[in-house]
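Example S7 (structure tokens).
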């Protein structure tokens, strides 16, 4: 079984700090650049699961790099280079305290709330009579607050502006970027026989300019359906075949875990871990359109550290 990278403790010249997030370790270099290591940790329901998923970090990093490059004409982004399959180096920006979630279909957490009677999501009114996995007439934006720890919270555009979390001018620009990015991502997915169902974007500012930051259109930040068979499955009320982290959430739910107090994460067998790894690789090959080349994992820490040092020149 391939090894998974679940923790890093690097020290680089001019390093100011390191932030260990749920799945990424971010090194601040001289308050100017960020070195983001996409580890193989996996989280669901805001909980980091006990085992890493081999090649997950590489998959996420390389998909994100592909889409950052493919959308740079829409909005400037933070990426400068990918010196290692699991690493992106980019510009340090002051992140907005919201995540821009955009949904093209009624599914996932939105569907769970809808079937319990909710007809307003983040200030967006939802029509009666919708079914699971049904396409919205037009995509809807349902932002959340960006929490350092714990759960992100749903919030409306009006609340964001009223609370001064983001200025009206900036928020309206974020909305324009979000719609345009989702349209581009949907077009690219369609070319590969996929449907981009929903996703999230994060933005920041640097020298008064808005940048797209973090990852985009990966299975951790997005949900994809296969286009083939979508309509037939929808009409029959059957689950869609999808490529996203939702299958991990569903597995956890089926095994009695939703991140609530007192619940225990179910045992993750090697067989299950490998199946999750294979699903991530499958999405990479579908959405990028070329075979996935596995990085070596025997000395993964040393490889990453050396590649970062070579790029930084230290």
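Recovered sequence:
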């Amino acid at each position: 079984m391939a090894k998974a990278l679940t923790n890093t403790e690097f020290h680089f010249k001019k390093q100011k700090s390191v932030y260990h997030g749920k799945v990424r370790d971010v090194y601040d270099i001289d308050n100017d650049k960020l070195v983001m290591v996409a580890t193989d940790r996996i989280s669901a329901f805001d909980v980091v699961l006990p085992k890493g998923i081999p090649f997950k970090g590489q998959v996420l990093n390389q998909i994100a790099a592909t889409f950052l490059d493919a959308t740079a004409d829409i909005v400037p982004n933070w990426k400068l280079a990918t010196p290692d399959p699991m690493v992106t180096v980019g510009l340090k920006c002051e992140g907005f305290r919201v995540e821009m979630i955009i949904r093209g279909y009624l599914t996932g957490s939105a569907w769970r709330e809808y079937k319990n009677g909710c007809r307003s999501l983040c200030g967006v009114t939802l029509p009666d009579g919708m079914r699971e996995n049904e396409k919205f007439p037009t995509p809807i934006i349902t932002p959340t607050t960006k929490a350092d720890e714990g759960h992100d919270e749903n919030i409306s555009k009006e609340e964001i502006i009223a609370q001064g979390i983001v200025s009206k001018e900036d928020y309206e620009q974020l909305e324009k970027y979000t719609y345009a990015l989702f349209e581009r991502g949907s077009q690219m997915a369609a070319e590969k026989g996929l449907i981009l169902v929903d996703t999230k974007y994060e933005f920041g500012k640097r020298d008064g300019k808005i940048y797209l930051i973090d990852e985009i259109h990966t299975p951790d930040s997005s949900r994809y359906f296969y286009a083939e068979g979508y309509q037939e499955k929808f009409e029959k009320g059957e689950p869609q075949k999808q490529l996203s982290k939702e299958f991990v959430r569903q597995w956890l739910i089926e095994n009695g875990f939703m991140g609530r107090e007192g619940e225990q994460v179910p045992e993750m067998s090697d067989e299950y871990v490998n199946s999750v790894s294979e699903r991530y690789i499958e999405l990479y090959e579908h959405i990028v359109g070329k075979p996935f080349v596995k990085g070596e994992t025997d000395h993964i820490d040393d490889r990453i550290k050396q590649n970062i040092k070579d790029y930084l020149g230290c």
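Notes on this example. Residues 183 and 210 are 19 Å apart (CA to CA).
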